[in-house]
UniProtKB/TrEMBL annotation:
Keywords: Hydrolase. Pfam families: YdjM (PF04307). It comes from the Bacteria. InterPro entries: YdjM-like. This is Metal-dependent hydrolase. One of its GO terms (molecular function) is hydrolase activity. The keyword Iron does not apply. Residues 175-199 are annotated as: Disordered.
Length: 199
C-alpha cells in the first residue's frame, strides 16, 4: 500500500483499538503515533517514505533482510507484543505505535505481494483485495476508516459542521430561523420633489 494509505489505516486502527487500552479514540498525539507506527515497517525499503528519512538504517535493513522481510513477519508481531507486555515504553506511547505497526502488516496483507509472515522461511501470505497504488486502494482504505469510525463511541457528529458549510439533509427537522421584521416602506422621493407634487 502507499504511504498515505498506511498513515490513514494506522490512525483508523487506533480509533478502533484505543478503548481496549483505556485511552480516548481521538487523542491527536496518539493518532499521530499510530500513523507513524503505520509507516515504520517499510524502513526495510530505502525508497519508501520512512526509508528515505532513515537512509543509512533503511539501506542496512534492506541489504540484510530485504523488503517485506523481518519487519513484515511474525517475528515483528512478536516484537510488538513484547513491547506492550513488558512496558519497555509507557503504554500511552507504545500502544498507538504498535497498533499502527500491525495495521501496516494488515494493509500489506491485502495486496497481491502479501507478507512473508514465516520469515526467514519461504512462503507468502496474502488476501489480495487491491494492488498497491491502484484506484481501488483509496476505496478500500475509506471503507476501513468508516468501519473504524463506527466503533468510536464518542465520535463527533459531522452534521453540525456540514450544516455550517451549507449542506443540510434534515432541514425540515431543524428549527426555522426567526422571521425577519418587515422592512419600512421606501420613501418615494418623486412625491417630495416640486415636480412630483400635485394639487
Ligand atoms: Zn510494507
Amino acid at each position: 500500500m502507499m504511504a498515505g494509505s498506511h498513515v490513514a489505516l494506522g490512525a483508523a486502527a487506533w480509533m478502533a483499538a484505543a478503548p481496549h487500552f483505556g485511552q480516548p479514540a481521538l487523542a491527536p498525539l496518539a493518532l499521530g503515533l499510530a500513523a507513524l507506527g503505520g509507516l515504520l515497517p517499510d524502513v526495510d525499503h530505502p525508497k519508501s517514505w520512512v526509508g528515505k528519512r532513515l537512509r543509512p538504517v533503511s539501506d542496512l535493513v534492506a541489504g540484510v533482510f530485504g523488503h517485506r522481510g523481518i519487519t513484515h513477519s511474525l517475528l515483528a508481531v512478536v516484537g510488538c507484543w513484547w513491547l506492550l507486555r513488558h512496558h519497555a515504553v509507557p503504554a500511552e506511547f507504545a500502544a498507538p505505535v504498535v497498533v499502527g505497526y500491525l495495521s501496516h502488516l494488515a494493509g500489506d496483507l491485502l495486496t497481491p505481494g502479501g507478507l512473508r509472515l514465516s520469515w526467514p522461511f519461504k512462503g507468502t501470505w496474502a488476501l489480495p483485495v487491491c494492488r498497491t497504488g491502484s484506484a481501488f486502494e483509496p476505496l478500500v482504505v475509506a471503507l476501513l476508516i468508516a468501519a473504524a469510525l463506527a466503533t468510536v463511541p464518542d465520535r463527533p457528529d459531522p452534521r453540525a459542521a456540514l450544516e455550517k458549510l451549507g449542506f443540510c439533509w434534515q432541514c425540515e427537522a431543524l428549527p426555522l430561523p426567526p422571521a425577519r421584521p418587515p422592512r419600512p416602506p421606501k420613501r418615494n422621493l418623486a412625491d417630495q420633489s416640486p415636480r412630483g407634487a400635485r394639487g
